[in-house]
Amino acid sequence: MSTADAIPFDVSGPPARPDTAWRRVLRSRRVAVGGIILGVLLAACLLTLPWTLRREGALAFDGQVIGKSYVAPRGDAPFGTDILGRSVLGRCLLGGSISLSIGVAAAMLSTVLGVGVGLLAGYRGGWVDALLMRGVDVLYGLPYILLILLFKIAFEDPLAAALNARAANLVILFLSIGAVSWLTMARVVRGQVLSLRSQPFIEAARAIGLGNARIFFHHLLPNLVGPITVYATLIVPSAILQESFLSFLGVGIREPLPTWGALARDGLSPALSPIISRWWLLTFPCALLALTLLCLNFVGDGLRDVFDPKREAAKI
Amino acid sequence: MRRYLAFRILQLPLILAAIYLLTFFLTWVVPGSPFDKDDKVSDKLAMKLMAQRFHADQWQSFLAYYPLRIVRGDFGQSMQYSDWSVTDIVKSALPISMALGLFALSIATVAGVGIGVLAAVKRGGIWDFLSLTIALVGISVPSFVVASALLLFFCVRHPWFAISRCESIADLILPGIALALLPMAYITRLTRVAMLDVLSSDFVRTARAKGLSRAAVIWKHCLKHALLPVFTYLGPAAAATLTGSFVVETVFNIPGLGQHFVNSVRNKDQTLILAVVMIYSTLLLVLNLLVDIGYSLLDPRISVQEKAAS
Fold first, then answer.
1. ipTM value of the model?
2. CA-CA distances (angstroms) from residue A100 to A106, A242, A296, B37?
3. What are the helix (H) ranges across B122-165?
4. Which residues constitute the domain of residue B192?
5. Would an 8 Å CB–CB cutoff place B13 in contact with chain A?
6. CATH (domain of B259)
7. A150:B23 CB<8 A
8. A279-296 confidence digits (pLDDT tens)
9. Are the beta carbons of A141 and B273 separated by less than 8 Å?
10. Does A157 contact B144 at a Cβ distance shorter than 8 Å?
């Protein structure tokens, strides 16, 4: 037996692992850094919920303390207190939980809507496609914040009659944001379906007699997971941003529940007071909001590079 | 080209009508009446008479009556501020919003293109770092955070600008910057990427080889190509500044149309809501149309039909 025959066996060892997308995700520094900071923030917000949601206590979101209003940040109140003596730290933490969950819920809703509309339009084609895409055009023509506002105002009271007022407020917030954020997703998915539909493997699947539903779920959808994941991650920051806009304008979350946008709104005038500037009321919620959005965009962009390297040129 | 144009222009009123119907439906299902004010005794008969004055006692009559007025350019009375006609409100507020929006857009375009070009030419240098920072901050940081930071720094810590005053062009500087940051982020990145693309192309090497100066090649030959993606972004950029101005107007206390819209939605002031939505949508649609037409004129390689087909 010559050594040459033995070589393949010698060098085989563990097979070279294929460079899958997820492996590249884990290697991407942007995704890692953004993800870690985001994880810490999320953990801090969610793990403190038992303390922030309490009626009384150092972190209670509505724990008003008379005589302790406008305390500047110090040992027992790390982020200071607001006019009612409530801990800004506690309110920021609960506000973060609410902002993030509204963002994620709205992103999920708009992902479902966008993927549904995109798939239907791209796969059916013809008049269905024309109708749906004209609808998307119409909605693109509207400044979205008008639409969110109108949705929210129109459906909040009927919903409050069915649920209680506070739950209705939260539900309608994410419903109205989700209902207008699916447009880009629909366009992306439709474009992908159109390009996939003309490829040989779909034709082959049809040629061997597979039904529409099977082609749809087994052959089209798995090929769309990458772009859908990427755009879904990018919807989350924009949904959080829209919620903060609404709350900042005073039409979002209802007192006394906080979100970062609402906290920034409440903090604006005390912070700008020319006599004593209570900067901590404005700075902390704004900084947390900006940091979270930055990290979410980091992760989304990193994922996009990994899943969709062709779009590198359009990268922002 | 001509056929496509005609199609787009004919489509415009249809889209506007669809937007009108959607808005109308949403304002109509809002519970409560715009005439129902807390501070006045709401007499059933008085309310009915008020509703009749606006043709708003039944949705059919309002729908049949109001669009015709809008087409004639008359938005009627405001339902909430009974002494004001919607046209007056719009006339006083729209120019301020437009001035702010245009100012922000021009800052965004000039600064964004400039920084983007410099970043591409000196890749990896200080300008590149600046362009990356602007892109990150502009996209991630909400405009009200930027606005508050500007106010805290330039009005409270260092009182160089007056707070909440809107009298001269100088008072639009801070809100303009706050509003410009988001479109500027996109424009900077778009310019940088397009410039990098152009700089490595053959005709640039030829131009340099035949002895043209660096500046002439960069600012004359390359920029022309690099501006195309920026131009297509101007439509969405206008939308971003329009909607962003709602929030910035609130922070800086500017009496623009955005504030009126937010208040009109709260007051269920149907005539004002419809007017603002229709004005904004018309502006946006016309801008997008102009951008599409301009794009095909600027870049002869692309015909609009191709773009429409893709």
1. 0.76
2. 10, 12, 11, 36
3. 126-140, 143-151
4. 93-309
5. no
6. 1.10.3720.10
7. yes
8. 888 888 889 999 999 898
9. no
10. no
